[in-house]
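Input C-alpha cells:
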C-alpha cells in the first residue's frame, strides 16, 4: 500500500484560494449562493469540517466542476490524516498472506 508522503490539500483551501479570492467572493456571499450557513462554510474553509456528498453537489454546481472532484479531494485528505495519525493499522497482517501459506 502506497501512502502519499505529502499532506493532500483540504478542499477548504481550494475553495478559498481558487474561488473565493480570485472571484472576490466572501464566505457570506458563497454561503448564500450554496444555501448553507456561514458557519458551515467557514468550518470547511478553515479545515475544521469535511465536504459532504451534499456539499460536493452544491460546490460542483456553483463552480461548474464535478461532485467527484470535491469528494476525491476530501477522501484523499481523510485517508492521509488517518494513515498518519496512527500506526495501529500497520500492525494488521494481510489476510491473503496468512491463508496463502
Amino acid at each position: 500500500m502506497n501512502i502519499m508522503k505529502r499532506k493532500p490539500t483540504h478542499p477548504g483551501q481550494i475553495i478559498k484560494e481558487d474561488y473565493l479570492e480570485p472571484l472576490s467572493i466572501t464566505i457570506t456571499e458563497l454561503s448564500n449562493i450554496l444555501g448553507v450557513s456561514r458557519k458551515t462554510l467557514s468550518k470547511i474553509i478553515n479545515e475544521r469540517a469535511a465536504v459532504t456528498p451534499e456539499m460536493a453537489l452544491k460546490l460542483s454546481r456553483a463552480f461548474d466542476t464535478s461532485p467527484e472532484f470535491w469528494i476525491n479531494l476530501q477522501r484523499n485528505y481523510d485517508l492521509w490524516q488517518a494513515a498518519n495519525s496512527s500506526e495501529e493499522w500497520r500492525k494488521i497482517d494481510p489476510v491473503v498472506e496468512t491463508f496463502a501459506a
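The two ends are 20 Å apart (CA to CA). The mean pLDDT is 93.
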